[in-house]
Structures are given as C-alpha cells and as structure tokens.
Design brief:
The complex is a heterodimer of chains A (505) and B (164).
Chain A lengths: L1 H10 L2 H19 L5 H12 L4 H18 L1 H7 L11 H9 L3 H34 L4 H17 L5 H15 L2 E2 L6 E2 L13 H19 L19 H7 L1 H16 L5 H15 L11 H17 L1 H7 L5 H12 L15 H14 L1 H10 L1 H5 L3 H20 L2 H19 L5 H23 L11 H28 L11
Antiparallel strand pairs in A: 1-2
Chain B lengths: L1 H20 L14 H20 L1 H8 L1 H4 L4 H4 L2 H7 L1 H16 L1 H15 L4 H22 L19
Helix pairs in contact in B: 1-2, 7-8, 8-9
The chains are: A mainly alpha (505), B mainly alpha (164).
C-alpha cells in the first residue's frame, strides 16, 4: 500500500502533471501534422527527457505517443491525409464522414475510442505484466536468446510488404548493434579507430536519423505544397459519441483487445493493429456495404486498436526488455538511462516506481479527453501549420538533440549517416521497424547466445533442454515455417478435389 | 532497377562485413568469438541481397529494353531534382559540423533554417525572423537550462549577450 501511495505521489505533483500536459500538447502538434510520426515525436523528446527524473520522463513519452496517435486522425478527417501511419487504415471513412458535415462527431468518436483503447491496454499492462514477470524470473540466457530471436523473427514475418526487404533492414540494425567493444572478449568491432564508437552506437542519434532526418529529407524531396481545409465542421464533438459507443461496444472491445495483442508482438505497432482491426471489423460487420462510404463502425474498431496497441507494446518491453514497437524500442533505452532496467525485476523491487508508471498510463490516456476536445475545436491551427517553416526548426532540434546525448560531434555524424541510409531504404519500401528491433535486441541476442554456449560448452542442443526454452524455440521455428505452411495449405485448397462419381445402380 | 542495385549493394556490404569480421580474434574456450555474429550478419546481407537482386532481374531486363519500347525511359521518369533537393538538409548538417566551432551553433542553425525555409518558398522576412528567434531559443534552452555545451563559436564568443 505504501508503494502504491508513493507511486501516486510521484505522478500527482505539479512537475509531472505539467510535463504530461506539455507532452500531450507536443504529441498533438506532431501527430496532427502529416509526415511527422509518433515515433519521431518520441525520438525528438528523448534528449529533453535525459534531464528529467524517471517518472516525468516516462510520463512525457507515454503522453506524447498516446496523443500523437489520436492526433493523426485530425488531418485524416479534414484532408484525407493521415497524420501518422496508425490513422491510415480508416482515413477514407473519416474523410467521407467529414464531407457529410460530421467531422467533429467523427473525431469525437475517434477520441473516445482512443481513450477506451488506451485504458484497455493499460489494464492489460497492469494485470498481465506482474504475472508474466514472475514467470520470467526463472528465465536464463537460453530463454532470453529465444525471446530475442522471437522478437526479431516477428518483425520480419509481420512486416507489411517484402520479407526480404524486412530481413535486410534487420541486418542493418543487427550490424549497428555489433559496433563497439565485444562484451565477451573485449575486442573492438567496426570502431575504425574512433574512440567514441568504443562504447557502441548510441541509439538516440540512430532514432533521430531514422525517423526525423529521414522524414525531413522526404519532405524536401517531395513537391507537396501547402494545403487548405476543404471541409468545414460545425457539429458537436461529443453529442453522438456515447450513442456510437453503445451501438458498437463489441467493436470497441474487439479492437482494443486485438490492438493490445498486436501491439505486444515485436515489430507490429499501432499501424498494423489498426489495419487488422479495420479488416476484421469489416468482415464481421452486418453492414459491410456501408464500409468505404463513410461508416462510423469502420472507425470504432481501428481507432480503439491503435491506441491500445501503444499500451500493449509496453508489456514485453517492461517484462522482457523486448520492444513491442519502435516507440518502446526508444523507451527501453530511456529506462536504462534512468536506472530502471527493463526485465522482471522491475516489478519486484518494491518501490513505487512501477505504480507510478501504471498511474502515468491512466493519467496520460484520460487527459486526452480534454486536450483532444480542445484540439478538435481548433483543428485548423494544427492542419495549416506550414511545414516549410516547421521542418527547418525540426532539423535544428535533430542536430542539437543528437549532440546532447554525449556532447559529441560523432553522434551528429551517426545521425547524418543513418538518416541517409534510412532515406535510401525508406524510398525503396524497406520497413524501418526491423532495423530498430535489430539495433535494440542485437546485443541481447548475441550476449545470451554466447553466455549459453559458455554454460553448455558449445552444445547447441542445450537450447532445447529447458522446457520453456524448448517451447520458445519451437515457436520461433513455427514462425519461420508458417509462410511455407500457409502457401502449401493454399495450394492444397486451390487444387481441384477429385469429384465422386455417381454410383451406377 | 533500384532494388537490383540495392541487392548488389547489400551483397558487397555483406562481403566486406565478413572480410572485416575474419580479422577478429576467437575465444580460447570456444571455436568462435567476436567474429561469429558479424559473420552471420554479413552472410545474411549477402543472401538477402542476392534474393532481392534475383527477384528484380526480369524488371531490369525490361528496363534495359525500355528505350526501344517508348519515350518513358528509366532516366526520364526518375526525379533527380527532387533527390538532389532532399540532400540539402544533409549538406546543412555537414555545414553545421564544420562551421559551428567557428561561427557558433546559433548562427549555423539560423543560416541552415533560413536556407531551408527559402528553398520551399517561405517569405524572406518571415523566414529571417523565425530562423533567428528559433536559433536563439534553442541555444538558450539547451546551453543555459540543459547545460549542453553547444559551440559558442570563436567569431562571436565575446559579443553575444546570451553566451556564457
């Protein structure tokens, strides 16, 4: 009880509450501007959180990401352009509803669904994580090796688009993770005589390069000019939202649970959660024909799913140190910086820190209601902010943010090189999530493998001797074989079955 | 075509990674050491690159046959101007890295922002005002409040009112 009260006190103080509000407004702004993603918002925020205590730092990240995901719906509704990739699944429905003069009603329903989805994911985080952590206490390097491999495999097989490209993107991240002194032998690898690289590549400049500089370069490479808002909105924000939630409560529940589950899978973030929830909602709907014409049901599933996915991604991140999406990949680094090493012991230390973290999730999701309401009322401000003024400002933040981590010019070079590589890869449809997961999980994978081999004197079968390790190993192998099995199954089904000849009497 | 070239680039990169990894020592207790993972990653890059290149061989053949097929060749369709402009932020980052010790972080940031804003057609007075205000604000925030030692620059170090 003391720990719980201590946790509440860590959140309900002026500093943390102000940080949450400021971060929510920041997330709103970034999310509502097309081309700027929630991950980019968090990457830009990290240099600032570096100088905060652990609780406000995490509160800032949670509030920013949750708000940015919702805010992506604002330009989606008014302009038919998703503010973040997580809004892309249902942008057509939102825009058509806005054309019918129901923009605020749509956004109000989006907002309520986002809050419910976020709270649902938080409840799962609160109730499932401690039990999982108790189980994870028995894990050794064998299990962590398989978990890391499971995460990396998921990032390839869940990725939308080419699996070969996802795999190559993963190798880039893994290669970056090997830079620096080898943990087992102390030998320097890929350091090229640069002292700053001996400790390895700091992931913050990599994130800034991959998600911020890359986007800035994309913007200057495109010819998209300023916009005007083609639709106007005079309707009420919240008047019809309760009715929609009551009618489609099953969709809200299904979207939230699906989003949490998909968010918890490494490599699959809020955007994939939204796409799958939208597709599932459509397939189960009684009014399928209304989808694509501006149907609120299509929005309910997906907007619940993308916000619950954000919370769900924290489950493996906190319990195993395996990020569920790119945002939690950043969060893991922040947790290490703050001395809150992710892993099962985070729940066992007894302090109020974990309760503070849970409370932060509730507050960050609930605060979305008033701030989101004001944002819906003032949508034009966010949509019409000229990107030709904003992008150069973001570039300055990128430079200073990369430098601020170690006060080193080397980090700016790293950001620049990674930004260029990411630009080339992203322009050619390579997904970025596998690269980030490779960077974050690469050292876990290698170190747990090396430790296991030392323990077992080089016997590879030891990876299948412990029951949980064997089960995780089998799961990894199943994931690798799944595409081939699905292909075989489809081929079998498409093959014409021999018809039974009628018996002659 | 681009996928084919990227596949080749990954193959070459993978080969280089494997070659460099072979120079790392092995651990006495095991047959492998710090070279194992980089070698596996390099191998993965070679195999993945090969697969990517092979899947695009057909398209490459069509692209090479393109000039005879019609006027929309690969070269005319590709937006080289956009590509060059998209590299401008990188050029300005290099400018910051090289010039900030002499000119100082605020001036380098202001110049970079001004160039980028004007490039996309912002009005001169607006770009100038925003660049100067934001550069000074970022400098004061990071150097005064977050205690980041951003370069003051040897050119103006004694004259800026907010230098410290």
């Amino acid at each position: 009880m003391d720990a719980f009260l201590q946790g509440l006190a860590m959140v309900f103080n002026l500093q943390t509450m102000l940080v949450i509000v400021a971060a929510a407004v920041f997330g709103l702004f970034v999310g509502a501007i097309p081309g700027l993603t929630a991950t980019m918002a968090v990457a830009l925020l990290v240099p600032i959180t570096f100088y905060m205590d652990a609780t406000p730092a995490i509160a800032a990240i949670v509030a920013t990401s949750a708000m940015a995901i919702f805010a992506g719906d604002i330009p989606g509704t008014y302009l038919n352009i998703p503010g973040t990739p997580a809004s892309a699944a249902y942008v057509g429905e939102s825009y058509r509803l806005a054309q019918k003069g129901r923009a605020r009603e749509t956004l109000g329903t989006n907002l309520v669904c986002s809050v419910i989805g976020g709270l649902f994911g938080t409840m799962v985080l609160v109730f499932v994580s401690p039990s999982l952590a108790e189980m994870a206490l028995n894990f050794s390097s064998f299990e962590y090796f398989w978990l890391a491999l499971l995460g990396l495999s998921s990032s390839i097989f869940i990725a939308i688009g080419s699996r070969v490209k996802a795999f190559l993107s993963l190798t880039v991240g893994l290669l970056l993770s090997t830079v620096g002194l080898d943990m087992m032998s102390g030998a320097p690898r890929f350091t090229f005589g640069v002292p700053d690289l001996m400790a390895g590549i700091n992931f913050i400049p990599v994130m800034i390069g991959m998600f911020a500089l890359n986007e800035i370069m994309m913007f200057y490479g495109s010819r998209v000019e300023e916009r005007h808002v083609p639709v106007t909105a005079k309707d009420s924000v919240f008047l019809k939202a309760p009715g929609h939630i009551k009618t489609y409560w099953r969709n809200v529940l299904r979207g939230s649970s699906l989003g949490t589950l998909i968010g918890a899978l490494p490599g699959a973030g809020a955007d994939i959660a939204a796409w799958i929830a939208y597709a599932l909602g459509k397939s189960r709907s009684k009014e399928k024909e209304k989808y694509g014409t501006g149907h609120i049901e299509g929005i309910v599933d997906a907007s619940s799913a993308n916000n619950s996915g954000i919370s769900g991604a924290w489950v493996p991140a906190l319990v195993f140190g395996i990020p569920g999406d790119t945002i939690t990949a950043i969060v893991i680094g922040v947790l290490y910086m703050k001395g809150m090493n992710p892993g099962p012991t985070i729940f066992m230390n007894g302090g109020g820190q974990v309760y503070a973290l849970f409370t932060v999730f509730f507050v960050a999701n609930l605060i979305m209601l008033p701030i989101g309401y004001l944002a819906i009322r003032a949508s034009k401000v966010f949509i019409l902010t000229p990107r030709k003024i904003l992008m150069p400002v973001i570039l300055s933040f990128c430079i200073v943010g990369a430098f601020a981590i170690n006060n080193s010019i080397t980090d700016i070079w790293i950001m620049l090189i990674i930004g260029l590589v990411a630009f080339v890869l992203a322009r050619n449809d390579f997904p970025m999530a596998p690269a980030i997961l490779g960077l974050v999980l690469g050292s876990t994978l290698e170190n747990s493998f090396m430790s296991s081999m030392l323990k077992s004197n080089g016997d590879l079968l030891a990876f299948f001797e412990r029951p949980i390790s064997a089960a995780l190993g089998a799961l990894v192998i199943l994931i690798w074989l799944l595409p081939s099995l699905i292909r075989l199954f489809r081929r079998w089904r498409s093959t014409p079955q021999p018809s039974h000849k009628p018996r002659s009497s | 075509m681009r996928d084919f070239l990227l596949g080749l680039a990954f193959m070459i990169g993978g080969g280089v990674v494997i070659a460099v990894a072979q120079t790392y020592p092995t651990m006495p207790a095991l047959q492998f050491g710090p070279s194992l993972f980089p070698s596996l990653i390099g191998g993965g890059m070679v195999v993945g690159g090969l697969l990517l290149a092979l899947t695009r061989v057909g398209q490459l053949r069509n692209a090479l046959a393109g000039p005879r097929a019609g006027p929309h060749t690969l070269a005319t369709r590709y937006d080289y101007r956009g590509l060059l402009i998209s590299l401008l932020p990188c050029v300005l980052i290099v400018f910051y890295i090289l010039a900030s010790e002499f000119l100082g972080a605020p001036l380098c940031m202001a110049v970079s922002m001004l160039v980028l804003m004007l490039m996309r057609g912002a009005r001169l007075w607006l770009a100038l005002i925003v660049s100067i205000i934001v550069a000074v604000a970022i400098y004061v925030l990071f150097s005064r409040y977050l205690l980041i030692p951003l370069p003051e620059g040897t050119l103006f170090s004694q004259t800026l009112p907010f230098a410290w």
